[in-house]
């Protein structure tokens, strides 16, 4: 598809929680997809740093003739970062999301991107989508929406699909074992949102909507699960307040 024939999807300011509304669980529907770029930029500290670094990490770990996955790709920011970090024509890049509204807009951004590597988009559940021959996999603020009892199985599937020398980039909102630290980090996160123009009402209502579907865990829980799944090293390469990004690495000497 020629980029000249593509019209970028409309991007608007996130005002979903600006007025009083009935409490309901957060869903990645068309209304969220429409404001998602603005929402995540103003809600997730460090997001604009993490995305370009995914390109850097992908470039370091991608292997020729392998698959690269963005699981929970939403509008494709991580997918495009991975795309620009892949310099092997024989690699296969796959974005997976279970929201058709997200993928519809994602396809527009991919078509507008100036890069020749094809991207395959799957409207599937990341818990059951096929994974194999992977050198780089990204879960960018996705695992936190997976039910906790299903997270170990997903990590094992990813680790089993990852080749020696391959990696998983895992970005997550975390919670802290210390109640005092949790309160401090939460307060700083809310101040970050206020600095980005969110009102107290918006912060409160979004928190109420998302708290039943976004279930954060501690760094220790993530590290133990990743090691148990079959990764050999877990490195925290970025943290800002209660948001972190980790690199789970398969040793080049690991036997498959």
TrEMBL record:
Q: Which residues bind S-adenosyl-L-methionine?
A: 47, 72-74, 97-98, 125-126, 140, 207
EC class of the enzyme, as a word: transferase
Which domain of life, per UniProt?
Bacteria
State any single GO MF term. Answer: methyltransferase activity
Report the residue ranges that make up the Methyltransferase domain in this protein: 70-166
Its UniProt entry gives the catalysed reaction(s) as: prephenate + S-adenosyl-L-methionine = carboxy-S-adenosyl-L-methionine + 3-phenylpyruvate + H2O
Q: What are its E.C. numbers? A: 2.1.3.-
- Please give one Pfam family short name: Methyltransf_25
Question: Keywords in UniProt for this one?
Answer: Methyltransferase, S-adenosyl-L-methionine, Transferase
Q: Which GO terms describe its biological process?
A: methylation; tRNA wobble uridine modification
What does the protein in this record do?
Catalyzes the conversion of S-adenosyl-L-methionine (SAM) to carboxy-S-adenosyl-L-methionine (Cx-SAM).
PANTHER family in alphabetical order:
CARBOXY-S-ADENOSYL-L-METHIONINE SYNTHASE (PTHR43861:SF2), TRANS-ACONITATE 2-METHYLTRANSFERASE-RELATED (PTHR43861)
| Sequence similarity | Belongs to the class I-like SAM-binding methyltransferase superfamily. Cx-SAM synthase family.
Q: How does it associate, per the subunit comment?
A: Homodimer.
Q: What is this protein called?
A: Carboxy-S-adenosyl-L-methionine synthase
Gene that this sequence comes from: cmoA
């Amino acid at each position: 598809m020629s980029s000249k024939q593509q019209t970028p999807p409309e991007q608007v300011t996130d005002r979903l929680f600006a007025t009083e509304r009935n409490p309901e669980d957060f869903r990645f529907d068309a209304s969220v997809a429409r404001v998602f770029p603005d929402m995540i930029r103003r809600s997730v500290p460090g997001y604009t740093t993490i995305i370009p670094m995914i390109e850097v990490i992908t470039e370091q770990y991608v292997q020729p003739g392998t698959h690269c996955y963005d699981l929970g790709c939403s509008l494709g920011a991580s997918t495009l970062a991975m795309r620009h970090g892949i310099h092997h024509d024989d690699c296969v890049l796959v974005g997976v999301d279970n929201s058709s509204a997200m993928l519809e807009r994602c396809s527009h951004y991919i078509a507008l991107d100036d890069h020749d590597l094809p991207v395959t988009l799957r409207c599937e559940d990341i818990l059951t989508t096929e994974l194999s021959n992977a050198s780089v996999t990204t879960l960018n603020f996705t695992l936190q929406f997976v039910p906790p009892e299903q997270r170990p199985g997903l990590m094992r599937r990813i680790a089993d699909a990852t080749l020696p020398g391959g990696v998983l980039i895992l970005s997550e909102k975390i919670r802290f074992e210390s109640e005092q630290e949790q309160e401090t980090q939460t307060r700083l996160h809310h101040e970050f949102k206020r600095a980005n123009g969110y009102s107290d009402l918006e912060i409160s209502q979004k928190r109420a909507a998302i708290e039943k579907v976004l279930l954060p865990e501690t760094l220790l829980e993530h590290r133990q699960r990743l090691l148990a799944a079959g990764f050999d090293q877990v490195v925290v390469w970025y943290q800002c307040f209660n948001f972190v990004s980790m690199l789970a690495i398969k040793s080049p000497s690991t036997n498959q």
